[in-house]
Amino acid sequence: MIKSKINTFVKSISPLFILISFQFSSAQSVKRIDPPFWWKGMKNEHLQLLINFNKELKSIEFITCSDKEISKTLNFKLLSNQTYAVLDFDIPANFKSDKIAFTLKSALEKKVKPITFNYELKDKNINLPINGIIPNDFIYLLMPDRFANGDTTNDCSIQMIEKSDRTKLKTRHGGDIQGIINQLDYIEDLGITAIWPTPVLENNQPKESYHGYAITDHYAIDPRFGTLETYRKLKIEAERRKIKLIMDVIYNHIGSNHYLFENKPSEDWFHKWDTFTRTNYKATTLFDPYAAESDKKAFSNGWFDHHMPDLNQQNPELANYLIQNTIWWIENFGLNGLRIDTYTYPDQEFMKKLIKTVLSEYPSMGIFGETWVQGNALQGYFVKNNPCLKDDPILPAVTDFQTYFALSHALTNDFGWTEGLARIYHTLSEDYLYSNPFLNVTFLDNHDLSRFFSIVNEDRDKLKMAIGFMLTTRGTPSLYYGTEILMKNFTNPDALVREDFPGGWPKDTVNKFTPNGRNALESEMYNYIKTIANFRKNSTALTLGKLKQFIPQNGIYIYFRYSEDGEKVMVIMNQDTTERLIKPSRFEEIITIKNTGTDIVSKKSYTFDADILISPKSIVILEIK
Length: 625
Description:
By secondary structure, the chain is an alpha/beta fold. The chain is 24% helix and 22% strand. 42% of the residues are buried.
């Protein structure tokens, strides 16, 4: 009888109405909508709103929309946790209105007050697509909490659980986005063209939230870092200095205090285990033909830590939530690049869909994924156009751990057939695994690794060799904050390599951001990096050129970068503790006795009509004329 009455009612209402299942009460209201607003004119016209109500919805209801065109595509779905629903619709390409009015009504309870809400639509930024991250760039990786404190008033936020305490190693120290803005001139002077802050979204966790990798709100800047407007100011001020902005994004996990975990839209938004199960960190299980199913599951579905719930990207609503969130940040702030944290751990079909969607909307967006794995075969598995794979990946570039491993080995081991500098040669010879290895992001260290200066036992000559190599080999180089002032330490614990940059806090007794605050050795290293970086900016050989390497001999590794316009750069590395002679005639396929070379750092001139003497533990970077 009741079903018959409902069917009669449905047939009598306007076609703008769509049946949905929930129950209203007089106190029923919309608590939150993600994304909070969207844009007209996007290439992908489809939008899915995640609506969070303050109470459960149970009986059959219907929804109306103020626009007839949008009404034709409306679809409402109540999730298993009935305080959530998803609302799907398409936004026509020629849509004019700045808002859409929605009304949720009861089909049975006429006396119940309807829920109404407006949804805002902005005009798409016509200045996008993005000027993305390319090999021309030099990236500066920094941790906002440990870099500089530009606004001391936000150090402790009332609504945040953890408070700042700079006296403790693993707590918040007060660095923020305004601090980054204040030091953009310093970053620009160093020759940097792109900044990569570790995540700045809200991390409202009880402890160790400073690193930013336990997000608790995907649409909010952590108030201890600033606001959405502070972040926008960072983008504007960086762009004014021709510095690009990279966002560090995480799809594998969130923080346990995230509202989506505390009140789950459905249980299958997260990977569940009977007891806490940590990932085994073995990405080899993704392609190992002999892998145990239990090992595959543990790798992809295991958690990173007790306070980092592992996301199930196979849930379509969650997948859509994460993809739309990424688009929202790019469109809202004009981001230039995405660094994808823990790229190998999420569902790989989801990762393909994510990247395909982003690149469809922003074809020049720079995207690189963290692939902390062992071996080029494993690292290359995740990068697009791998000639060895039938099921083609789509990730454009990776954080190049294999070149990092080779470089750290090269400068801590004696020369041999595959040892010392020969390790670099052999590693780069495997670049056939990548369609464009020049997009891979090279580095000496990062926030998870021991400082390279400590790895080479605080040998400044070896650090110079490493920096010189990184800035002249193939790839897009990335410098970890503080390397330029000889910051050091090992990851025991990780927080030791995440120390405050001296001078970033008002009460600091020294300020390494200024020339007067740096000692002679720090200034030497800073100026060394600055010299090569600024030369690199204007060198087609180093930014656009090809790479030609010669088999290392007697501790000497020599390679060339050369471009179509005829520009050439020769790089000579000597890892030996004694001087070495090299014969220019060996390299006559690329240089002749008519050429000369100028050391871009010392300005010393070289000719190629006689043997060249190379100092021990050194790198020589020659601009060829």
